[in-house]
Amino acid sequence: MNGWPELDRFLRTDPRDVGCAQAMDMLHVYVDLVAAGAPVEERYPGIAAHLRACGPCGEDFEGLLAAVRGEAH
Amino acid sequence: MVSGNHTAHETRVAAARPDVESAEWLRALADMGPPREAALARLHGLLVRIARREVARRGPRLAISGPELDDLAYQAAADALLAITGKLGQFRGESRFTTWACKFVILEVSAKIGRHFWRHPAVPLDAEDWDRLPGRFGFDPAQEAEWRDLLAAVRRAVDDELTPRQRQVFVAIVLNDVPLDALAIELASNRNAIYKMLFDARRKLRAALAANGYLGHGIVGHS
User: Rounded to whole angstroms, how far apart are CA atoms B56 and B49?
Assistant: First the structure.
């Protein structure tokens, strides 16, 4: 049937998900920790859950992380 | 989705003393005359550089290119600079200053891309073509006999379980492929509210499918 995994991913919700506002409020802190190799998923599980599920916030996270890493090199 | 005090530990960290480089940025931006002008020029240069890289990174997935994309980057940098200088007092030293500042320009790029979507929308907001649903989730047309009932159940759940607003958000994002930020603009809402609406819709749809015996055919459930 082959569409199940995609539908499953879409419908699956994580109760720890903090939502866009709180994730974006802390994005700069989260990104600096990721760039430093810190265990952010343990420290901020709700933000990690949100960034996995929310396309736009995930995109902003990738963009800011790329910016920080790009400036560091 | 949790909210309020339950997540306070994830959203509040103690204000910290800025690192040396961040302190230097703050000192220069709070200065007067040429030192401040020089710091502003350096910050603007950083924001333009980041914005151009960011639009180039996102460019292949957008219906924007060339000079228009470059204009968008410059506008994002200018607006971010304005926002940063107006909010310097809100920097709490929790991250490097440049990371905090770059966040503004990344969010400006997102917002401007969202607004740009409505200049040439591929599908009207109120279109409702359910034939797009199988393709949206990658169901193989050759195996329609296996998934027809499931997707019919999804559609019934959308009709029966969702509020009108949740249904509108589901149709726009899932069927019409409207970006969430663009939808937030069109509905005079914001990203957080639209995400919350879609989050609740997803939870309801999953529960309805479970109640009707559709989980267990490959959907491994926890909701």
Answer: 11
